[in-house]
Design a protein that fits this description.
The structure holds 2 protein chains of 2 kinds.
Chain A lengths: L17 H17 L2 H23 L6 E4 L2 H8 L4 E4 L3 H10 L4 E5 L9 E4 L6 H7 L15 H36 L1 H8 L2 H33 L3 H34 L7 H21 L4 H7 L6 H10 L7 H28 L8 H6 L3
Parallel strand pairs in A: 1-2, 1-3
Antiparallel strand pairs in A: 3-4
Helix pairs in contact in A: 1-8, 2-8, 6-8, 6-9, 6-10, 6-12, 8-9, 9-10, 9-12, 9-13, 12-13
Chain B lengths: L1 E10 L2 E11 L4 E6 L5 H8 L7 E6 L2 E2 L2 H4 L2 E4 L11 H11 L4 H14 L15 H13 L5 E5 L7 H16 L4 E4 L3 H7 L2 E6 L2 E7 H8 L3 E6 L12 E7 L2 E6 L20 H12 L2 E6 L4 H8 L1
Parallel strand pairs in B: 3-8, 3-9, 6-7, 7-8
Antiparallel strand pairs in B: 1-2, 1-4, 4-5, 9-10, 11-13, 11-14, 12-13
Helix pairs in contact in B: 3-4, 3-5
The chains are: A mainly alpha, B alpha/beta.
């Protein structure tokens, strides 16, 4: 042996502290996971998805409509709008342009005398509402309690937050569970347990995967404004910035809460094949915010309840805050509840993890894992 | 020095380890022998803190073993385990760091060990791409990487071909010669016999016998002798206290009756010289003619094992 460290004896108080062991475990999980192709593929899809969502609406059907105008009256009316105007010789030529799809609509002089503004609008398959409303006269509207954001934007934000939380919780939650089972299945866990405290193993996994997820979310958050600028969606950008403020702390705590549960789900079984049965409960807890918020995002009572339940709060509370429905103190209360649940969950997970990690064979029952502490 | 003191552990109704005590002395290779399910693995897991003992203690250098102390132990569990997708050298170095080593030292030791175990060329291959025998060598490297102060190896030789056994043996002997106590279990009694200095025989969770290999041979082997004379040796069966085991013309193999006086509790003790019945047989033979060969037949470990279990 080339080394000369053998003179040390085991009685010397060298060795890894809890935190350095945790750091090593976390480091290994991150390295191992970022080396897989699946990780980069998944992340790449997210990036592509963001740019697609920002840019594609402009390409398909979005953007400024092109309108064919016949006669000076039509052109005059259209001059006050920001539509792209194409003069046409007569009504038939304009109709032809609409038919071929070269323009979205045509404005022609009204010959029947029925139109109060003296022009008719020709559309292809559907009524070109944006053109119609631009040419209409609307009475002024006074709102008593104006909503800060419109319903569509609100739904979109709820959907986007729920989606991001769901994808990361499931994708990386499952990775945590698999990582735990791999250690059980290969039995390397016995060496690990003989070497470092079980708590360090659990903490290392949760911290490792959490950092991995937070880093990805951070990169995506930085790319989103770029994507939105590229897609000319500056309006969306401004409200997204407001909404993100609360989403970030809720997301972090919510993810760690679920991560501790995924780890336990992994520790309860001894083979990858059995993961499905033990992860079912955690899966349900991830589904709650996803479907709950998407389905009930306009039901104030349900959303209020969801915004305090620790599993749905990470999505529901930022959406409510963003919609201006939550009082200023509400997110703080929900965050406190989430934090308390998180501590309780990690404490329970530590015990269940320790109690089930070295038990092999069939699925370990929760009660058994709880009472079985070496 | 590792001292296991009155350690007991039950699983439900089953008393897997029952009041087990033994020592593993510095620089000694201690073989841990017992049938399947006799409690070897459970005892080792208790020493490593993987399992808790119901009662009893494990002492290292006269102090109770704690997590910090345990980090200086090297362990090779019976159920092998490595990260399948991690490279061999990287994996061994990682385990070294978990044991508290600096990265550079861990990497240096990992490379040196894999070299020593004949795996230098496979060091950067993922473990899952190695043959089972080579995975086993990586496993041994994983137990040794941090230059442990104590080695606990559960069946280190199972699954190894004869050449690999020799390599591993030399690595372990090297450690022992540097003063590291080594405890290893094996069901391959011939390997244990060649390798161990001390022996702990466990049966049904309890220590059936322990001590140095030579001492145990004296203690538990039947007092068997072989005599070769020029003529027929058939007369030996008539000597009082002699039970003839085998007679082949001039060669006789016989046991000396244990109950016969004089001698200690175990009958004639050939090497100890306490009994003189063996001398009586020799004198009787010399009176009849030349004696070509006479001496105790040393029992093999498997014979001792059968005797005590």
């Amino acid at each position: 042996m080339a080394t000369d460290t053998t003179q040390r004896t085991a009685a010397e108080p060298v060795g890894t502290s809890f935190w350095s062991a945790t750091r090593l475990v976390a480091e290994r999980e991150i390295t191992a996971h970022t080396r897989t192709k699946g990780f980069w593929l998944n992340f790449g899809l997210f990036v592509v998805g963001i740019f697609a969502a920002a840019i594609l609406p402009n390409i398909f059907g979005g953007g400024t409509p092109t309108v064919a105008a016949v006669g000076p009256q039509s052109e005059q009316l259209l001059a006050t709008t920001d539509f792209e105007v194409r003069p046409a010789d007569d009504a038939d030529a304009a109709e032809e342009l609409v038919r071929t799809g070269e323009v979205d609509a045509a404005v022609v002089p009204d010959t029947t005398g029925q139109s109060p503004v003296g022009v008719r609008v020709i559309g292809h398959e559907e009524s070109p509402d944006d053109v119609v409303s631009a040419l209409s006269v609307s009475p002024p509207v006074d709102l008593l309690e104006p909503s800060e954001v419109d319903a569509g934007v609100r739904f979109f934000s709820a959907f986007a937050f729920a989606m991001v939380f769901f994808m990361f919780s499931v994708g990386f939650g499952m990775a945590i569970a698999q990582s735990v089972v791999t250690e059980k299945q290969t039995r390397i866990v016995e060496i690990l347990v003989a070497t470092v405290p079980v708590r360090a193993l659990l903490a290392g996994k949760i911290i490792g995967y959490s950092l991995l997820v937070f880093a990805q979310v951070a990169v995506l958050a930085l790319l989103t404004p770029i994507a939105l600028r590229a897609g000319d969606q500056d309006a969306v950008l401004s409200w997204l910035a407001d909404a993100l403020g609360w989403f970030v702390p809720f997301f972090i705590l919510g993810f760690v809460l679920l991560a501790s549960m995924w780890a336990v789900a992994g520790a309860l079984v001894s083979r990858q094949e059995d993961l499905g049965s033990s992860t079912a409960l955690v899966m349900t807890l991830v589904m709650i915010p996803y479907f709950g918020v998407i389905m009930f995002n306009d039901n104030e009572l349900v959303m209020t309840i969801l915004s305090y339940v620790p599993f749905s709060a990470p999505v529901a509370m930022p959406v409510r805050t963003f919609g201006g429905e939550a009082q200023a103190w509400e997110p703080f209360l929900a965050l406190t509840i989430l934090l308390v649940t998180l501590f309780a969950s990690v404490a329970m997970a530590t015990r269940l993890y320790s109690g089930s990690l070295l038990q092999t064979g069939s699925r370990v029952r929760l009660s058994r894992a709880w009472s079985h502490v070496e | 020095m590792l001292q296991v003191r009155s350690v007991s552990r039950s699983f439900g109704e089953l008393r897997a380890v029952d009041d087990v005590s033994f020592d593993v002395a510095p620089g000694r290779m201690t073989g841990f022998v017992g049938a399947n399910g006799s409690g070897k693995t459970t005892t080792m897991r208790i020493i490593l803190g993987v399992l808790a003992a119901d009662s009893g203690t494990v002492l290292w250098e006269n102090r109770e073993v704690t997590q910090t102390v345990r980090q200086r132990f090297g362990y090779m569990p019976e159920e092998r385990g490595l990260y399948p997708k991690m490279k061999a050298a990287e994996q061994v170095a990682y385990l070294g760091r978990l044991h508290g080593m600096e990265r550079a030292a861990a990497e240096r030791n990992a490379a040196a060990l894999l070299e020593q175990l004949g795996l230098a060329e496979r060091a950067d291959d993922p473990v899952e791409q190695l043959s089972l025998g080579n995975q086993q060598r990586v496993q041994i490297a994983a137990a040794l990487v941090h230059d442990p102060g104590l080695l606990i190896l559960d069946e280190p030789f199972s699954g190894l071909d004869p050449l690999a056994i020799e390599i591993v043996l030399s690595v372990l002997r090297d450690r022992a010669s540097r003063g590291v106590p080594v405890l290893f279990s094996s069901h391959q009694l011939d390997v244990v016999e060649r390798l161990c200095d001390d022996l702990v025989i466990i049966a049904a969770g309890a220590v059936a016998a322990s001590g140095s290999r030579d001492e145990l041979r004296r203690q538990f082997g039947p007092s068997r002798f072989q005599l070769v004379v020029d003529d027929d040796a058939g007369w030996v069966r008539d000597v009082p206290g002699v039970r003839l085991v085998e007679l082949d013309g001039p060669r006789a193999v016989f046991d000396l009756d244990e109950e016969s006086p004089p001698g200690d509790a175990y009958g004639a003790a050939p090497a100890g010289g306490a009994g003189d019945r063996d001398q009586a047989v020799l004198q009787a033979a010399l009176q009849r003619g030349p004696v070509r060969s006479y001496g105790p037949v040393v029992p093999s470990l498997s014979e001792i094992f059968k005797e005590v279990v």
